[in-house]
Request: fold
Amino acid sequence: MNYRTLSFIALGLLIICSTLKAENCECYVQSGYYQDVYNADIELLRGNPEKAYKYLQSAEQKCKMINMGMYYEIDKYIPFLLEHDELEKALYYIDLLVSEQGYRLENFQELTYFEKLKTLNSWDDIYQSLVQAEKVFVSDTAVFLRFQEMNERDQYYRRLLGNRNLTEEQRTAMWSKQKAIDDSNYIEMMLVINKLLSSEIKLSVEHKGSTLNTAYLIINHNTRDSAKLMELTPILLADLSAGSWYPSLYARMVDSHLRRGKSMYGTYTNTRTPEQTYDFENLDERRISVGLPPVSLEEERQEWFRKQHEEWLREGNNLE
Reply:
């Protein structure tokens, strides 16, 4: 599949967004929700909490907040709400995370301003309601374990192929077996992907992150096949628009398919050059169109975390 074909497919995003809005469902990409989340995140890293708070308020005005992996905007928003005495709203989001994403109440009780909630007249009843919500949330462990097994199968022969002493014949045989596993994993994943992305299947925040990463691996190892990419693209674009699939995972899927040619979204840092990227001058515009941050913002964030890691190592920590 070439760049022209993928560009044509991406136009479907606009149609999907229009349909979603017609059904009173916000389009996370077109509304600018993702960009507000990225800007809030970078302002926090820059040490500008009030600017971050304003961006999170803006995101909230556009769509139901989703607590996107790697950014966790609701986690960041709750302390601001408590600090600014938006107690009812803070409770709403605490309840959402506990009842829909499997958070534990202890995660919030350590917050600096949590004590403010106890001043509410109905606090005892509210607290008991949250305790009950925590008890009744049950992560679909069967689905989580199913994806864990698929992850093991996905990596089994790939790990063995790291052995440099294998003969060419052995490598060919292993790749043939791995290809059969990839096809099997893909079929199994497609049976549940719509339920998974629509949150019909409930997963705790820990289980969801791991499960989506496994889904991405399976997708990534199958979309060299153009037919499978064509099958997945409308599904993932719709879920991207609805806020249930991460922009980075969609864009990496496309760039992975194009890995032997030019990158479309610059998700791999070594491809962010005019020689390695289609229509390089419009790269940021194209990234924003699928909910990614501009390259400069992503690189600033990566640099911040790199420096934090270096400082952590200087303090005598290590990974052993």
About this structure: The two ends are 43 Å apart (CA to CA). The longest helix spans residues 168-197. The CA atoms of residues 33 and 62 lie 6 Å apart.
